[in-house]
Every structure is written in C-alpha cells, then in structure tokens.
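Notes from hallway chat w/ T.B., transcribed later so I don't forget. T.B. wanted the structure written out for a chain they're using in a teaching module, and asked if we could keep both sequence and structure tokens in one place. Agreed to drop them here.
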Amino acid sequence: MVYIALLRGINVGGKNKIDMKLLKQTFEQVGMIDVVTYINTGNIIFSYNNLSKAEISSILEEAIYNDFGLQIKVVIRNLDDVRRIINAIPDTWKNDKEMTSDVMFLWDEIDDESVLENLVIKPNIDTVKYVPGAILWSIDKKNGTKSGKAKIIGSKIYKQVTVRNVNTARKIYELMKAQNS
C-alpha cells in the first residue's frame, strides 16, 4: 500500500533540521520501500504492507529519534485517505498571490468534525471544511489579517496538526498515484 508520512515541524525556521537524503535512508532502513521525498518540509511517500498506520507511525517516530535525536510527530495517510481529502478541496482553491488555502492534517486523536467547534472561524472571511483526516481552510489574502486562522497558532489544536498548502497537498497526491500505478 502507498502511504505519505507527514512530519510536523522539520526544516522550518532553521529548527529540527533533517537532510532529506538521510531521512530517506532512515525510512529504507526500517523496511519502507519505494521511498520518495517531496520538498524539504517532511513529505515522504513510500510503500509498505502488513502494519496499521499507527504501527507505521510509531516505527518511523522511533527511527527518526534514533537517527536524528528529534522527537517528531509522524502522521500517516494512505492513498485513499489523501484522495478523499483532495477530492474535498474545491477546484478554485489555490495558494497564490490572491488566496491562501491550506490542508491541516489532523492527528488521529482529534480527527472528528467536532474539532471545528474549537476554531475561530470568521463568517464571510474564512472558508473552512472538515473532511476525515483534515481541516481545509481558505482565505482571500486581502482578508488575511481579519481571518480567525491566525488564532489557531499556539492553541492545543495547532499542536495536533501538520499543515500543507493545497498546492503541496495536490502534488503529494499526484506522486502517490504515480507510485501506485
């Protein structure tokens, strides 16, 4: 089965630096196959069989700690999970000079539509959707300072998500589909 490992908080602002070539080797050493990294922020596509997503996550978190000395949360999603998320993103959503659109991949512990109740969502500014595995959030950049999205930073929820912009999420999906064929 094809999976994506989404690492939270690596190679951002000079913190938790991990070389992607070395990370790829770490994944291969613990049995992941066809390992491909995408950009420097912790997106690793790979294939593996016979273990649950939680078991794979645990193996990878331990391997990253052993090889890099970092306690990094690893969110695992399979191709079907990512397909469901990508299909829920409106085609008009982009991450460009006019719009900011993100996928907030949720830890399993908070993966429920009720997570939306704990967010500050400004009507007519924020467009927010829950889909199993993620929160989708889009804002016109001209309203960026008025958005409730900034209020998530530092919250309990923020510590239980890893964020990718929709352009990155779509590319990850394309890479996963290519590996599955």
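Follow-up for T.B.: Residues 107 and 160 are 5 Å apart (CA to CA). Might be a good example for the class.
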